[in-house]
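Hi U.,

Before I forget, here's the chain from the pilot set. I'm dumping it here mostly so it's searchable later in email.
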Amino acid sequence: MARVAEMMIGRRTVPGLLVCIAIAMASIRLKDATGIAALNPVVVALAVGIALRAAFGLPAALRPGAAFAVRPLLRAAIILLGLQVTIGQLASVGAGALLLAVSSVALTLPFTICLGARLRVEPALAQLIGAGTGICGASAIVAANQVSRGSQEDVAYALAVITLCGTAALLAYPALAPFLGLSARAYGLWAGASIHEVVQAVGAAAAGGPVAAEVGTITKLARVVLLAPAVLALGAFVARSGGTVSGDTVSGGAVSGGVGEKAAMRAPMPWFAFGFLAMVGVASTQLVPTAVDQAGRQLVPLMLAASVAALGLNTNLAALRAKGIRPVLLGVGASVFVSLLGLFGAIMIDR
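Structure:
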């Protein structure tokens, strides 16, 4: 494996990349072995990466590989994610559900950015929390950071906030459902339109029975498809507002910059978003071999976890603590907003 990696990406990149992949594999095995859905491998990989950085620092030999995992590997994972969704799946839930999914993304992201400004949360961090809340949790956060260009600490904090709020929703929705008098379809719509991570949304929807599980899963996938246009729109917003780079940015195979350091820059074009949409189109043809589809479903979680492990390795724990409680309040506020929006929309659609 190491020899193949050397041929493809260069010798200097291999050590760090292998460490990130090892962390990712261990995180996935932990989740599989315990069967605990809340042990999201992406979050576990982040925690392990942060712990290793705090204990041992980030050796120079690992930096090029960590930089590769943060950017090229992550973008490849997001492109492959598109193979898991088809246009036929989205059409099966009806126009009302698709409109609700679009509304969840289109309204939650700007709401979170505006609320973040009121709470005096750094713009990049607010954008990441908004993306994670409105779209699809961890995947959206790491994808959105390709244009927001927040610090490693911004990404780590956003992931922690989204995990906390999404897990709370996973526990709260089934408990609240009996008191709200929702039908199975309406409950599935609510869960799919407003819970952060795919696994959290599907788990909560499944508590409402098979109809709720099916509707919730497809509604959530509709939000996943909106990852690409949302990142494009966010990139345009960052560029128009004179986006900034904050904290440690990965460049040239190493980590550079300091916490609080700002530099005006134009947001890059997120070409990987077009790749994601292209893969949705390919999957919709129904011509993708079963073996390829299954391989993609195995590879994407591994690649995402490895990318986030690299973020953890680059995260300064002291800087993370310095961000305070305001981003947590922002995450809670954004989660309440999208939950109420999803509930209202589900009730209106099911009337």
